[in-house]
TrEMBL record:
Identification of the protein by name: alpha-glucosidase
GO biological process: carbohydrate metabolic process
Cited SMART domains: Aamy
Pfam families in the record: Alpha-amylase
Organism: Pyrocoelia pectoralis
Signal sequence extent: 1-21
Membrane-traversing stretches: none
Superkingdom assignment: Eukaryota
InterPro entries membership: GH (IPR017853), GH13_cat_dom (IPR006047), O16G_dom_2 (IPR045857)
UniProt entry tagged with the keyword DNA repair: no
Enzyme Commission (EC) number: 3.2.1.20
Record bears the keyword Signal: yes
Keywords: Glycoprotein, Glycosidase, Hydrolase, Signal
Molecular function per GO: alpha-1,4-glucosidase activity
């Protein structure tokens, strides 16, 4: 067999070429780049487009309601950035109506948008723009409004484990209204109802139970006491939540990221959990216990399978592309892969792979990385799709965990491995954690704890505003003080600066996103090689075409095609 061979070293401004091969039929999501947007921190709203003359740059940066919080119109104004970056789908962290004690993960109405972010009509406008139905999107540094056919998929966060205590369902459950009495997890306490039903601990510290005087029972909340857990052993509740999914599908969303799926069911006998005996963990920390009875229960998988049936049936009835479900769990491998499905039922299209976060760190060698990659690809259920996640709104930014010099190598790795790549907003420009003090803290996970544990518990650092340019507040807004401080490096680490430099983090990001769409990497059989502790190689073969990629200390890429 004749093989033409060449080697290409990728300087960050190089062009990249791969031989083309026959293209199988691949569903849209299987090689997608999902881009997570944390709405509070992405972009504030902008003025309407005036066609008679272009608006000034200052007006584009205006915070129209002067609250220092990003919103849906702000996101819509930046859709062009997502197209430029090459992403396939935007995933929105919660935008539902909420009292915002946990920044939107405490939902008071699943069928409406919180006024903090805009209106339901604003969401429909964003959805239409992303789906090619909108008309005009600003180029922030340009001089004209231009028509862009964006073609982006839109994914919503679905938060099924709990609601806000201000939700109408909970208010009705409080008064024991028949249909809603069992919508939540209620339980009689111990010692004459004086103590919680068991020793379970909240993610936000302290007991996972709160006593309610009206019902004379304790209700479960695995997060804040204002976030009561829903009871999926109620058939009425199960139907209600399926109707919520259908409601958003009817509006046109392309799928859902299912939040904290691992917590959906609890042990029906409400047994105490054993102590973990971990060092330096206080008795009110969640890590104090082993969560045998509050995470990844058998019934949870069946609920995921039911939701998958709903999504697949919807596609068959309405047509169009697959409506996607992706699930969040930090479970051990054996339990984690159950979310993909079993011999008789399909589950999530993919369950997040957090191993680049949980299993690797700044000290990890090429051999360690190879082990983690190979383990996922080896044990992932047959015919399912892999995915690779570097960070999210709950984890310190990858540039802070690994160091800014290693961001590019990790970006290459996540993009060039087979399957789905997930980017948290800001990773594409190498954003690091912001600087937030205890007095500036917003995250209830930290605020409900002790000041001495702030650095360990807070998620504020990775949620600071997106750094668009080097102007006031990094271009995020030019009105009120942002809800969290802007990162101190915004004058050098920002999108506008990096777009002018092909050797920047963003320049490389664009190139590897384009590269991952080549057939050799999309459809080839991937293998890893650890040449040394500091050099990791990837090979991908398809028909008569093969590619080899070497990551030397995370900072360079060698591409061989033969």
């Amino acid at each position: 067999m004749f093989r033409a061979k060449f080697v290409l070293l990728l300087a960050l401004n190089s062009l990249i070429y791969l031989l083309l091969a026959a293209e199988p039929n691949l569903e849209w999501w299987k090689n997608a780049v999902f881009y997570q947007i944390y709405p509070r921190s992405f972009m504030v709203s902008y003025p309407n487009c005036f066609f008679s003359s272009p608006p000034s740059f200052d007006r584009l940066l205006q915070d129209s309601n002067n609250d220092g919080i990003g919103d849906l119109k702000g996101i819509q104004s930046k859709l062009d950035h997502l197209v430029d970056a090459g992403v396939t789908a935007l995933w929105l962290s919660p935008i539902y109506k909420s009292p915002q004690i946990d920044h939107g993960y405490d939902i008071s109405d699943y069928r409406d948008v919180d006024s903090l972010f805009g209106t339901l009509d604003d969401f429909k406008s964003l959805l239409a723009e992303a789906h090619n139905k909108g008309k005009y999107v600003y180029i922030p540094l340009g001089s004209e409004c231009e028509n862009h056919f964006l073609g982006l998929k839109v994914i919503l966060d679905f938060v099924p484990n709990h609601t806000s205590d201000e939700h109408d369902w909970f208010k009705r459950s409080l008064v024991n209204e028949s249909k809603y009495a069992d919508y939540y997890v209620w339980r009689e306490g111990r010692n004459g109802n004086k103590d919680p039903p068991n020793n379970w601990i909240s993610y936000f510290h302290g007991p996972a139970w709160t006593f309610n005087e009206a019902r004379q029972l304790w209700y479960l909340h695995q997060f804040a006491k204002g976030q009561p857990d829903l009871n999926y052993r109620s058939s009425d509740l199960v139907k209600e939540m399926k109707d919520v999914l259908t409601y958003w599908l009817d509006l046109g969303v392309d799928g859902f990221r299912v939040d904290i799926i691992s917590a959906l069911f609890e042990d029906e006998q409400f047994r105490n959990e054993d102590q973990s005996n971990l060092p330096n963990v206080s008795a009110d920390d969640r890590e104090y216990l082993i969560h045998t009875y509050t995470e990844d229960q058998p019934e949870t998988y069946d609920m995921v399978y039911q939701w998958r049936i709903l999504l697949d049936d919807y596609q068959r009835e309405k047509g169009g592309d697959a409506r996607v479900m992706m699930t969040e769990s930090y479970a051990p491998l054996r339990k984690l892969f159950g979310y993909y499905g079993n011999e008789t039922h399909d589950g999530a299209h993919f369950t997040f792979n957090f191993w680049f976060i949980t299993e690797l760190n700044v000290e990890s060698s090429a051999h360690d990385i190879k082990f983690v990659i190979d383990k996922w690809l080896t044990y992932m259920p047959w015919r399912h799709t892999a995915n690779w996640v570097l960070g999210n709104h709950d984890q310190h930014r990858v540039a802070s965990r690994y160091g800014s010099k290693r961001v590019d190598g990790l970006c290459m790795l996540s993009m060039l491995l087979p399957g789905v790549a997930v980017t948290y907003n800001g990773e594409e420009i190498g954003m690091e954690d912001g600087e937030v003090t205890w007095t500036e803290a917003q995250d209830p996970q930290a605020c409900n704890g002790k000041e001495k544990d702030f650095l360990k518990n807070s998620r504020d650092f990775q949620r600071t505003p997106y750094q668009w340019n080097g102007s006031t507040n990094a271009g995020f807004n030019k009105g009120a003080k942002p809800w969290l401080p802007v990162g101190s490096k915004y004058q050098t680490v920002n999108l506008a600066t990096e777009k002018t430099d092909t050797k920047s983090h963003y320049g490389l990001y664009q190139q590897v996103v384009k590269l991952r769409k080549r057939n050799t990497l999309k459809y080839g059989d991937m293998a890893t090689i650890a040449f040394s502790d500091s050099v990791l190689g990837l090979t991908s073969d398809i028909l008569n075409t093969s590619s080899a990629i070497s990551l030397d200390a995370y900072e360079s890429l060698i591409l061989t095609t033969s």
